[in-house]
């Protein structure tokens, strides 16, 4: 299990693949002030929501490298032959994917918040929301990656599957950034994230098994 | 104690019945060669034996197995010896047995078709699994590679292992059961 997680992390960082969502996230943060203009107050009010949206879109990018290469090269078969259940494989991939996606994204949120002129209090809420929400995003990406493995041009389909399911994360994440926790947005964000986290290994495991027939 | 048991196994793929009522037992030291025309279910039989497919009816029982099929399952960007080390404790002897010792430091993506086949077989040889499942093991191998494969298979059986191979090419497996599909 540990070996699996380490292998996934090596694959994510060795080719620079894990950097792609970060660069994308920062690019959106750079472009947004160009689009709405240099009004500091407006940026500070809308910036948190925009960064949540950027995080959501950045979560789409790794979908084609999470499961499909291992399926095509027979790695999933060999792991299964060595007695690893598909669910355990999916869980290892989930842990590694979050480690390569969540904390770096939280780091990238610091310069992004500076570009948006977000006040410290908003930035703190954004970071806390990302800490709670990115595991759910990572789980969603992994589940959809397993579902669409083996399909050709699965990228567009993956987007169609991920984005609607990520709406609760976006609503509660952006809501918490904007208005604070007076309506329990943080708890609801945690609930949505946990639901995705709990379901993803089983859905991905079943998808990997079904993909063999 | 048998290493592989097929008991009245039927295989159905995509709604089509490939074969049914197949029974087969491999004890330590035994081997079987599956033959038949393309599309008759040889690879499916190997995957059934590996537990990667479920039989439509009947039962499959197996000991710890190692599989070499058309997929190499080694990380393309890594050196061959390190990629192999993800799967097996010590692959040095197996790389030597398949004549790959001089290529151990090359990245996997640089290997030729025949060398990739040798690497997949080296993974099986180093696995220490008692049951070898080989899908077209001779594909892409030259004469030297074939000799090394046959020597490794003979050594494995002498050590109490069993082999199930699907092959078009004639393989030297003395006293092997012939499983003819189609």
Tally the helices of chain A: 11
Give the oligomeric state of the chains in this entry, treating copies of one chain as homo and distinct chains as hetero: heterodimer
User: What fraction of the residues of chain B are assigned to beta strands by DSSP?
Assistant: 25-35%
Topology, number of strands of chain B: 8
Strand pairing plus helix content of chain A: what structural class?
A: mainly alpha
**Morphology of chain A:** elongated
- For the terminal residues of chain B, how far apart are their CA atoms? 29 Å
Order of helices and strands of chain B: EEEHEEHHHEHEE
Secondary structural class of chain B: alpha/beta
Q: Helicity level of chain A, as a percent range?
A: over 70%
- Largest interchain contact: A-B, 16 and 20 residues
Helix content of chain B: 25-40%
How much strand content do the residues of chain A show?
under 5%
Question: What coarse outline of chain B follows from CA principal-axis ratios?
Answer: globular
User: Mind summarizing the main beta sheet of chain B?
Assistant: 5 strands, parallel
The number of distinct β-strands of chain A equals 0
Rg over C-alpha atoms of chain A, rounded to the nearest angstrom: 18 Å
Indicate the mean pLDDT of chain A: 92
Please give the order of strands in the largest beta sheet of chain B: 5-6-7-3-8
* Biggest sheet overview of chain A: none
Count of helical stretches of chain B? 5
Structural commentary:
The complex is a heterodimer of chains A (213) and B (182). Chain A is built from 11 helices and no strands. With 213 residues, chain A is mainly α. In chain A, helix 7 (86-115) packs across helix 11 and helix 8 packs parallel to helix 11 (185-210). Chain A is elongated, with a radius of gyration of 18 Å. The model of chain A has no long low-confidence stretch (mean pLDDT 92). With 182 residues, chain B is α/β, with parallel strands linked by helices. Chain B is 27% helix and 27% strand. Chain B is built from 5 helices and 8 strands, in the order βββαββαααβαββ. Chain B has helices spanning 42-50, 80-85, 92-97, 113-125, 143-158; strands at residues 4-13, 16-26, 31-35, 57-62, 65-68, 131-135, 162-166, 177-180. Chain B has a 5-stranded parallel beta sheet, sandwiched between helices. Chain B has a 3-stranded antiparallel beta sheet with strand order 2-1-4, covered by helices on one side. In chain B, strand 6 (131-135), helix 5 and strand 7 (162-166) form a beta-alpha-beta unit. Classes of the chains: A mainly alpha (213), B alpha/beta (182). At the A-B interface, helix 1 and helix 6 of A face strand 5 of B.
